[in-house]
Amino acid sequence: MTPADGEFEVAIRRLLRAPLLVSPAAAWGLADEVASILGATCGRLYVADYALRRLQELDEAGTVNDPRDIAGTLAGRAFTSGQVLVSESNPTVLSVPLIEGTERIGLLELEYGTWGGEIPPLLEPIVAVLVLMLVSKRRYSDQWVRARRSQPLSAAAEIQWDLLPPLSCSTREVAVGGILEPAYAIGGDSFDYAINGRSLEFAIVDAIGHGMSAVLMSTAAISSLRHARRSGTDVETTYRKVDELIATQFGECYYVTGQMGSLDVPTGVLTWLNAGHVPPMLVRNGTYAGELTCAPSKPFGLGGPVAEVARENLQRGDRVLFYTDGITESRAPNGAFFGQDRLADFLVRATLERVPVAETARRLSENVVEYVGEGLKDDATLLLIEYLG
User: Which residues partner with 174 through β-bridges?
Assistant: First the structure.
């Protein structure tokens, strides 16, 4: 065992001896313990809100102080970039993003009265262990989800957020990122994905209506899609099962539009079915390559045969955006639509600037909200996939 190994083992043992097993809430008080291990005078833990636009400080007692904006702050820049940033003021502050896999969940600030100019060598492994501890404990307490609310959350939105997978995930071959707006009052939009062996399987849905009735439909649709996926059901049979469920449970006047499909990672073959939904957009070689076409089957709940299961051979670096019409149909105060041209232009610029998928999704959502100005009139949801080859 090298000295570095021994030092790391001592640090991990010390971290694990913290009173974590006494109460799940004790996990939120680990920032000072981590700070002490890394030679800092104090530490602060921040949780990202649902909209990924604010950071809320959290400790063992609950939320502390007012939320801090991500835009225009050093902490926000560290969070969005995924990089450790140093503010060499007095005291010196290290802003350390907390990342579960590739999903950004919050931020750790470490304060140093004396700064030697070098990042502590144990910072990365200690923070990685901290994230694992936080993730394992947040299921047992409401404090983490309470900290994610920078404004009141509707009951309908609570259901949708509990249903969602992590907002982003990346491997060496594929990256996926999604987001929902309005984050605190989302209705009938939702998405789902899973990386199973050599395949990325995904879905996005938009239920008719708003509020709780729409949420119940989209929840039923996503749960049925998830059940079929986990059962190994093919796409056409899955479509029929979801269609039958919506029709049986909600009646002939209700329906859910959507897209569902899979990406075969080794070959880059994208396969999908369109259930009365807006077609996805493709960005290839840094330019907008247009919409991917698939003859639409009827929305889930309205019955009918499968019109087409479409296929597209993706190239390395291709980005495909699945979205709901609430994005392009969002209106500025002067009545102008956000529109497909503006959406395509944003995607191209983000691709050329090499903005990661997760951050592209966050920025696009933020741009739509800012474009509208006074609150979205409809749900605006997106699921962005990048094929890395």
Answer: 387
